[in-house]
Amino acid sequence: MGLIKPSYVCMLTLAMDIVGGKWKMVILWQLRNGVARFRELKRLLNGITQKMLTQQLRELEEAGLITRTVYPVVPPKVEYRLAEEGTKLIPALDALCQWSTNYASSHGIVESSCCATHMVEK
Amino acid sequence: MGLIKPSYVCMLTLAMDIVGGKWKMVILWQLRNGVARFRELKRLLNGITQKMLTQQLRELEEAGLITRTVYPVVPPKVEYRLAEEGTKLIPALDALCQWSTNYASSHGIVESSCCATHMVEK
DNA sequence: CCTTATTGTATCATTTTAGATACTACGTAT
DNA sequence: ATACGTAGTATCTAAAATGATACAATAAGG
Hints:
2 copies of one chain form a homodimer.
Chain A: E1 7-8, H1 11-19, H2 24-30, E2 36-37, H3 38-44, H4 50-62, E3 66-71, E4 77-82, H5 84-105, E5 110-111
Antiparallel strand pairs in A: 2-4, 3-4
Chain A binds a DNA duplex through residues 1-2, 21-23, 37-39, 48-52, 54-55, 70, 73-78.
């Protein structure tokens, strides 16, 4: 979301600076049970553009939440997975997810096909 | 953050639509142990403008996370407090807060005076 | 030589979010 | 009469986030 500052009055603000925005939490969530390649993530993150995905992944890497493994082959192969710090965040995301699932069900909001990781398509 | 849609693929996205953005979570956090008036909130939310605070509070109210109580006196007196749905979110915010506190301490980020609610000033 | 597959970059436009500033209403105290 | 305090609105501007589109690199397969 924003650049990370040297000091914070409220730690929630720091959390938002690290994983706020439209995509970061969803990316981490998709990585929660394993590794994924760029293309695979793009498919899972319905509608994200290449530029955004690259950008978000770089920022998450920079913050130390994910790792990026490049295999020197062609065509390119790059794997993304949670780093230590990223893994530690999963319980919080899970709590958030449960809250909003409950919220949705009592507000007539529909959960369409949910975040199934590693869906096999076609 | 954004308008709430009728359906979501990932519930984290819903959470972000409800409490994303720069201020919403912090407002809820400040309300976690009780009531606060408009002016009081403005003081606690270092640097928020009146317009933003009003706007964020209205959106939180609309989403059913807080309640707004107007006393018909002059000068005006309005109290804000967590509603049921807002209270249910606190554990998730707490998890997030703990994560980022830990993150901060291992990344040389400083927590300056933290989110003390209801500070008595002067 | 041309196409395909994968992971990108670069440039520009649009949308969303946030901020600055000025103004309103009204009872009470001075 | 005037200023004060609280909780706002209204208007305009600036900054940040997101999106669309086109292009690059390179080995393998035909």
